[in-house]
Records
---
Amino acid sequence: MKTSQSVLFLFASLIASSVADAQTLNWHSVENLPPDTRIWVKAQDQTYCYFERATDSELICQFRPKHSSSQKQNTDLVFSRADVREVRLASTDDYDDSKGPLDLILAVGGGGGWDFARQPNAFVGVKVGGPFSLDLQYDRIQGHSGFSTEGSAVIPLFRVPAYRPFATRKFVKLYAEPGVGYRAGDGTFGGYSSAKVLAILLTDTWSGDWLAPYVEFQRRFPFDSPLQGDNRFTFGVMLAVCKHCGIE
């Protein structure tokens, strides 16, 4: 029980530390922004644009497509003050879409590995979520069938190669996924803690509208016998929507 409580406390701490608080500008601050300031506006949709002016009733800014976008013309945007939920300052450089947590994950995958007795295991499942994900899996461990449910934080680490403004190249983004889960069915496990590393293949034209291949390595630690866990590799594809994808 103490082990379970310690793992849950660690998991909660990691989740809390992975959520960044972004300061929202009040309307008076928005009205006094210098023209051509790059801002992020959340209304019915989320949009990056360049501030032009604001009045008591509306916000006007200019949308400028990315260098890599098929859209070439700038567009003036007008937001009613009543529709604007948040306004934030944004970087003036071409933005690295791989920064920050994922907004949406929809994935399917399968794979296998080995347990503490060097016996092979196999599984298939789905992953849904965003900054926090839920895994649902069917597996076979030592000839026994079971189902597992697992919750994890999805914490961004780094990308290889590093970001370069206005480049359009492929890269691998790595995420850490500490989590807890429960396996029901024949065989071992029950409740367990989990440590995973997720690697997704993406490009700098990432728009969240295509299936990205991914690989995930996982080590599971049963609460009752942490040393008798298993190691697993997952291979699959996912719809991975980044924090800023689909906005510009």
---
Amino acid sequence: MASEAAAPEASAVAARPLNSPWSIWEHRENTGGGWDANMFKLCDFESVGEFWGYWNSIPKPSEIFFDGNSNKRFVDRKVSSFSIFKKGIKPEWEDEANKRGGEWFCRKRMDPAALDELWLHLVLGMIGETIDAGDEITGVRVVDKSKRDIIYRIELWFRNGSKDAAPAYHELRDRMQACLEAGSGRGVPQFQFRPHF
């Protein structure tokens, strides 16, 4: 008689290493200086448990982005974006891993709760390598672009944005959209391509 497979214990799942280590960044508003001066790395993680520990300590975009009335604060500061990138890669076009790359982005008005859901499933699809089984993706960003209206931007960054790489980055887009649709159970917004060079 075959024995029944036991479900993995929570501690075993939490300790499960990810294929790549990642870093979570925030971009603060109005701290002075240039882009680099406003960008801060919050943490590094390389396992499922570390990810959830940090993820649950950082506010959802809807908790701090513009909601139609005001921007909220994260502890003592205003945050205009969060990024999760492979460890050692900065969320900036000038980084060696990004400067010949590109991104799929969606900029639109959306319900803040829908933004949270989209952001979560994009991050899970990326770090779990559902979207990219190789090493093409460098990171993702969620950005508050609101002024008077509620506009958010979600971005998936990758290494090669050249025309020759179009089949590969179109495949990333298709896998990303399939991942988001499976996670949300509803249609997802269309993403547009932008090269970084």
---
Amino acid sequence: MAIEKLREYAELGSTENFIPASPNYHFYDEGVQTRYLIPGHFYAFLHMYPVGNDQLPSLDDWTTGVSKNKPYFDNYPIFLALDQFGQSGLGLNVKLLPQLTRRYIVRSYIKAIMPVLEKMVDESGNFLEFEERIRPPRINPFASITLDWMRQRLFSALPEIKFSFLVNKYNRSDMRYLKMIDWPDVPRIGEVNYSTDPTIVSRSAISDYLKIV
């Protein structure tokens, strides 16, 4: 039963038989191919327009306010969609969280939305087909998953988290191979270590800027 496994992960933090193929496992190879960006759901994609680190500010420039641009560029984001998406919208890039913090946030998020997820399963506890789940009224509660919701419900106990560092504006036209990471696979997000990911471009070492969150 998929819903039971999710509940177990939220409560105990255990995943079933998942060993990442690499330390920087990318989710855009899997998941549900979709045109939709739905608030409250996790996505992965390949960015169409990568940039070099010479176009980015240093970590010092960003932390001191010299530059408002992010000191990194993630070519393979893993993000939680927030607010309403049209051609662009906000996303919380959970890949940029240190692994233990990411696991905590993913578990806490699943626990918080479990009452909604429980209404998206059949009598056996397995998830309904994707197209059925995104229809009203089942999908309606996800409209409330916003940036403020995340701050108040999940990040209030972690005041050191700098939201502005994690939140990005994503353009739908920039996304190649957009995949929704379906709920049975969401626990895997917390089990991958991205501290050496070469697809995150930065003028600073990844280990340095992960410390700020």
